[in-house]
Structure formats: structure tokens, C-alpha cells
Specification:
289 residues; mainly alpha; 43% helix; globular; disordered N terminus; binds heme C
């Protein structure tokens, strides 16, 4: 099992290149390995497009799953078998993430709010309905998560600070707990908020850094952009280092709804998850399940 490179310094995100990710098993020819996978991916993408759009009639769930497993081979060439994440800690997991969140991300890549050319080229020509179907397919795959492996150097005090920010936030700078939106188990909230556990440290750092530099954006208003602006780099590292060390809870599925809590301030409305504010705006007992 490969460990992720340590991230002691908070670095600006960058797109991976073939040479960034030589696999330990094929150290002699990393780029040949990469291109082989890429061409395999493109081949399957062509095959998938050739197969045309899905029938108008709703296919049986099993048939839909089989069809989609075939059609998404271009994706799993990078994202790992069944979208369980690539082997190198960079290509993110897709399996089990909320469908609305995945769909929003596919739109973000297609519409230039997130950047990764090789993938954007694949999703660009696909219809929004088809992006939604792929999102549904990956969202329904429940696969076990790997054991967390983050081992970057960080003091116990900084880790404790990370835990505190994640679970309690910091009222002095108007920072809600991450759990308020990402769920008390941090496994995400249906349908639009992703979980924060089971993600490699490098991926977490890259995403938070990308929001700080506006390389990653969500539908406006972009609450995550606002949140990272309220956190200095050392707090972001504390938070990502703590998150990347946590094992998954027994129930890894996203929560059905966000936890009850104080209403979100107007400045932290999330365009990609408007339901978070709609709930919070209800009277305290009105939001009860
Ligand atoms: C060439 C490799 C590659 C291919 C092929 C590819 N992706 Fe990706 N994908 C990536 C990388 C790298 C990222 C993360 C980019 C970043 O840092 O923001 C990503 C991110 C994503 C995300 C966002 C995940 C998250 O948790 O935010 C989704 C959803 C996604 N890809 C779906 C797909 C689907 C569906 C396909 C097939 C149509 C596909 N990808 C094909 C490399 C690829
Ligand atoms: C006000 C609600 C809210 C709060 C509070 C919040 N988030 Fe988020 N977060 C979101 C939403 C909504 C998304 C999905 C954005 C999108 O659609 O791209 C998100 C996405 C993310 C992602 C991307 C995950 C992925 O798979 O790519 C990370 C990382 C993240 N948040 C970290 C945090 C951390 C760390 C905190 C606490 C310091 C936090 N968030 C607090 C609403 C929130």
C-alpha cells in the first residue's frame, strides 16, 4: 500500500502531470504507464459515446448499473476501479459521494469553475442529464474506505487545534464548525455536501488551497471560498492533517440532513447547497426531523 507524500508545507495546488505520479511498482516507466491508462480511458470514452444516450425508458436498476459500469470506464481509468480513488492519492474517490455534489462538480469542470483539462475534455461534450446519471451511478456505489495513512509532521497541539476548528469552529472570526455543513459524522449531507473523511491529505490541501487562490469555485455564493478566507494557512494544515488521520465511522453514508444548529450567516450561504440555509432559517424546532 502506498503512503501519501507528506505535506508539511501548504502548497498551491497544481494539476498532476504524468511524472508527478510514478507508481512504486513501475518506477522505471511512469509516463508509459500513465499514457497506457489514458489511452485505455479514451478508448472506452469513445466506445461509451458510440453507444449513444440511454434509452428514454428507465432501465432496471441492475441493468443501469451494468451499463454505467461499462460507460464510465474512461472515468475509472483515473478514478480507480468503481471510482474508489486512484492508487496515488491524487485522483479522488467518487464512490458513495452525494449525487448532487458529484453532479455539481461535473458541471464545475465543464463550465470552468474547476480545472483539470484531461477530464474536462471528457465531460465537456456530455449532456447535463448524462452527467447527472453518472453522478447517480457513482453515488450509489458503497465501497469500503482505506485506512487513513496521513503521517505528515505536525505537533499534537496543532492537531488538537485542527479537531477544534472542525468540530466547534471559531466564533471570534465567524467560522462555523465544519460539521455544521458536512454532518456530525463528517460523511457529508445529502444531496449536495461531500464528506471530509477518507480523503488523502494532499487532495484536501490541494482543494482548500485552490479555493484560496480561486482556482476552484463552486456555484455562487461560494461559502467554501468565504470559509478558507477566514483561515490562515496554518489552520488549513491543522484541519486537513486532523481530517486525514480520522478513521471512517461505521456508517459511512452521507447524513440525510444537516445537523440542527445556529443559523448560517448570510455571508456563508452556499449556492451549491442552498438547502443548508433554508433549513437554518427555520425556527429552532422547525428544523427537527
Ligand atoms: C485523466 C484522468 C481523469 C479522467 C479520465 C477523469 N477524471 Fe475525474 N478527476 C480527475 C482529477 C485529477 C480530479 C481532481 C482535480 C482537482 O484537483 O480538482 C478529478 C475530479 C473529479 C470529480 C470531483 C470529485 C470530488 O470529490 O470533488 C468528479 C465528480 C469526477 N472527477 C468525475 C469524473 C467522471 C464522471 C469521469 C468520466 C467521464 C472522470 N472524472 C474522468 C481525473 C480524471
Ligand atoms: C456553510 C457550510 C459549510 C461549512 C461551514 C464548511 N463547508 Fe466545506 N463545503 C460546503 C459545500 C456546500 C461544499 C461543496 C462545494 C461544491 O459544490 O463544490 C463543500 C466542499 C468542501 C470540500 C471539497 C471536498 C471534495 O471532495 O472535494 C472540502 C475539502 C471542504 N468543504 C472542507 C471544509 C472544511 C475543512 C470546513 C471547516 C473548516 C468546511 N468545509 C466548512 C459547505 C461548507
Amino acid at each position: 500500500m502506498r503512503t501519501f507524500p507528506s505535506s508539511q508545507n501548504f502548497t498551491a495546488p497544481r494539476s498532476p502531470t504524468p511524472l508527478d505520479h510514478p507508481t512504486p511498482t513501475r518506477l522505471g516507466q511512469p509516463s508509459a504507464w500513465f499514457f497506457k491508462r489514458l489511452f485505455k480511458g479514451l478508448f472506452w470514452a469513445a466506445a461509451a459515446w458510440g453507444a449513444g444516450p440511454l434509452n428514454a425508458q428507465v432501465p432496471a436498476p441492475q441493468r443501469f448499473a451494468n451499463d454505467m459500469a461499462e460507460r464510465t470506464r474512461a472515468c475509472t481509468a483515473c478514478h480507480g476501479e468503481q471510482g474508489r480513488a486512484g492508487p496515488d492519492g491524487y485522483y479522488p474517490r467518487l464512490a458513495g459521494k452525494p449525487a448532487g455534489y458529484l453532479h455539481n462538480q461535473l458541471r464545475n469542470f465543464a463550465q470552468g469553475r474547476r480545472h483539470y483539462d484531461l477530464m474536462a475534455r471528457l465531460v465537456d461534450p456530455l449532456s447535463d442529464a448524462y452527467l447527472g446519471e453518472m453522478a447517480q451511478y457513482f453515488a450509489h456505489l458503497q465501497l469500503p474506505y482505506p485506512t487513513p495513512t496521513a503521517s505528515n509532521a505536525i505537533t499534537p497541539e496543532r492537531l488538537a487545534k485542527g479537531q477544534q476548528l472542525v468540530t466547534q469552529g471559531d466564533a471570534t472570526r465567524g467560522l462555523p464548525a465544519c460539521t455544521q455543513c458536512h454532518g456530525v459524522r463528517l460523511t457529508g449531507v445529502q444531496p449536495n455536501v461531500p464528506g471530509l473523511l477518507g480523503l488523502p491529505l494532499d487532495y484536501l490541501n490541494a482543494q482548500l488551497g485552490a479555493w484560496q487562490t480561486a482556482q476552484r469555485r463552486a456555484h455562487a455564493p461560494d461559502c467554501m471560498a468565504e470559509i478558507v478566507q477566514r483561515m490562515p494557512a496554518q489552520d488549513l494544515i491543522a484541519v486537513s492533517s486532523w481530517l486525514a488521520r480520522q478513521p471512517l465511522p461505521t456508517d459511512t453514508r452521507p447524513a440525510d440532513r444537516a445537523p440542527a444548529g445556529p443559523a448560517l450567516p448570510e455571508a456563508l450561504r452556499c449556492g451549491s447547497a442552498p438547502e443548508l440555509s433554508a433549513r437554518a432559517a427555520k425556527p429552532p424546532n422547525g428544523g427537527k426531523p
